[in-house]
From TrEMBL:
Protein name: N-acetyltransferase domain-containing protein
InterPro entries: Acyl_CoA_acyltransferase (IPR016181), GNAT_dom (IPR000182), YpeA/RimI_acetyltransf (IPR050680)
Superkingdom as given in the UniProt entry: Eukaryota
GO molecular function: acyltransferase activity, transferring groups other than amino-acyl groups
Keyword Acyltransferase on entry: yes
Organism for this UniProt entry: Adineta steineri
Stored Pfam families: Acetyltransf_1
Lineage: Eukaryota, Metazoa, Spiralia, Gnathifera, Rotifera
């Protein structure tokens, strides 16, 4: 990996920056790239409840989860992150609290192409091998985000279903993906 970047665990003081990074990458991916017609009110409602500094403070403090961040050493900015933990996806085959889940994996648009998503994914999969040995890993990915789906397929995730989630009152549709424990 390029010496320009460092990958580390998130610390308590990263919560505000993580909220800002998540909001920025969400807008880049879903509003700008995929042209999903969220209203400003829907986005702000979602950001207040699901990606606020308080939300990330709880995630960082949760011993059952882990957040890794990628920092650009030249600017000091956080440019990517991944958040993982116990499975919360409702699916007939998932085992809540026994399986693992990738909650979020985002890379700022102008930092894509450096291999940061793959770097994060490799660290995440190693963490799952330690924390959830021989258990499946689950994730949800926006139905139209083919770039992300292709990254996950590269790591042997496959689509097993659909789910709906709420972004400030706007009903979103995503694919549920699973990676079996024997995948490498």
């Amino acid at each position: 990996m390029d010496n320009r970047f460092i990958l580390r665990r998130a610390i308590d003081t990263d919560n505000v920056t993580l909220a800002e990074l998540n909001q920025q990458t969400f807008i880049e991916a879903y509003v700008e790239d995929l042209a999903i017609p969220f209203s400003e009110e829907q986005l702000q409602s979602y950001f207040r409840t699901s990606v606020s500094p308080q939300y990330f403070a709880k995630k960082i403090a949760d011993s059952q989860q882990s957040i890794w961040v990628v920092e650009d050493k030249t600017s000091g900015e956080l440019v990517a992150f991944g958040n993982v933990g116990r499975c919360e996806i409702c699916h007939p085959d998932s085992r809540i609290d026994e399986d693992g889940e990738i909650y979020r994996l985002y890379v700022r648009r102008n930092y894509q192409g450096y291999g940061l998503g793959r770097w994060l994914m490799n660290v995440i999969l190693s963490w799952f091998e330690e924390q959830y040995p021989r258990r499946p890993i689950w994730l949800g990915v926006w139905i139209g985000n083919l770039k992300a789906q292709n990254l996950y397929k590269h790591y042997n995730f496959y689509i097993v279903g659909d789910r709906e989630f709420d972004v400030g009152g706007y009903k979103c549709h995503s694919k549920i993906m699973r990676r079996d424990s024997s995948s490498s």
